[in-house]
Design a protein that fits this description.
disordered N terminus; 4-stranded antiparallel sheet; Alpha-Beta Plaits; alpha+beta; about 25% strand
């Protein structure tokens, strides 16, 4: 009897590529980006499934997509549905035992190895926090309050339509909790707060699928001397010294000694 159990998570190798064929497909849809991240976290922690990613279809709708054995995917979809209902953001869910090859080729429901290679660096086990607002100004204000209230780092932001914007932060669990609370107060003061999510220990696959913004290197300002004219004169003098070779004290007396030596007279023979 063939088991539905899937192999343990490994690196993206040919074994995983072959394993992903002929596996079950599970999907859970919500109306909030923080909610779908929480749903994906619950799905992966409830069963041995692989998180393919998210599909954002507009209007605030997001779908978490997982693959794995039939029994594992069934458990994951059940856990994801229950979590989404607790958040009050559940839309729909589905489980397909073995999707057809043409379905996988056209729709983004299968693992695309070329997109996953080197994607998503690990956050080092830090907690992550997500805060979603309706309106960009409220999200920016919340992000500012979050960074000023605790030691957290802004990772990126995500928009899913209907004016919904999510800011993503990372840090220690205590700092993330403090920052999220401060961001909630500021978001409600400026506009509308839609949802929040704090995940204490995200799995590596969840971190991989989170959007990330490349941090640009801040150029350092060139420090000029206070007295630029004096410094220019000093540089000119140093350059002049480099152009005129110094005379060695040991060589100089030798040259004078050579100059002082008499020129010997040529001896001539008498004819």
């Amino acid at each position: 009897m063939q088991s539905d159990a899937t192999p343990q998570r490994k690196s993206f190798t040919a074994t995983r590529r072959n394993w992903m064929h002929d596996t079950a497909l599970g999907m859970v849809s919500t109306t909030s980006f923080p909610a779908i991240i929480g749903v994906a976290d619950a799905m992966m922690k409830s069963a041995n499934v692989f998180l393919v990613g998210y599909e954002k279809t507009g209007g605030g709708h997001c779908t978490a997509i997982v693959r794995g054995g039939v029994a594992d995917v069934r458990m994951a979809v059940h856990a994801g549905t229950k979590t989404a209902q607790q958040f009050g953001q559940f839309v729909s869910s589905s489980m397909i035992p073995r999707p057809g090859a043409n379905l996988e080729a056209i729709l983004p429901i299968s693992v695309r190895m070329e997109e996953l290679e080197g994607a998503g660096q690990s956050m080092g086990g830090s907690a992550i926090g997500l805060l979603e607002t309706r309106g960009f100004p409220a999200m920016v204000g919340a992000a500012d309050a979050m960074t000023k209230s605790a030691e957290v780092t802004l990772v990126s932001h995500e928009t899913i339509g209907e004016g919904l914007c999510t800011i993503i932060i990372q840090g220690s669990l205590s700092n993330v909790a403090i920052a999220v609370e401060a961001g909630m107060n500021e978001a409600e003061r400026i506009g509308e707060l839609n949802s929040v999510m704090v995940i204490p220990r995200p799995l590596g696959d969840l971190e991989r699928t989170l959007p990330k913004t490349k941090q640009a290197k801040v150029p350092q300002a060139v420090k000029l001397p206070l007295k630029l004219e004096e410094r220019t004169e000093e540089v000119a003098e140093e350059r002049q010294k480099e152009l005129i070779p110094a005379r060695s004290p040991e060589v100089e007396p030798m040259e004078k000694k050579r100059e002082a030596l008499p020129i010997p007279e040529l001896e001539t023979e008498e004819l």
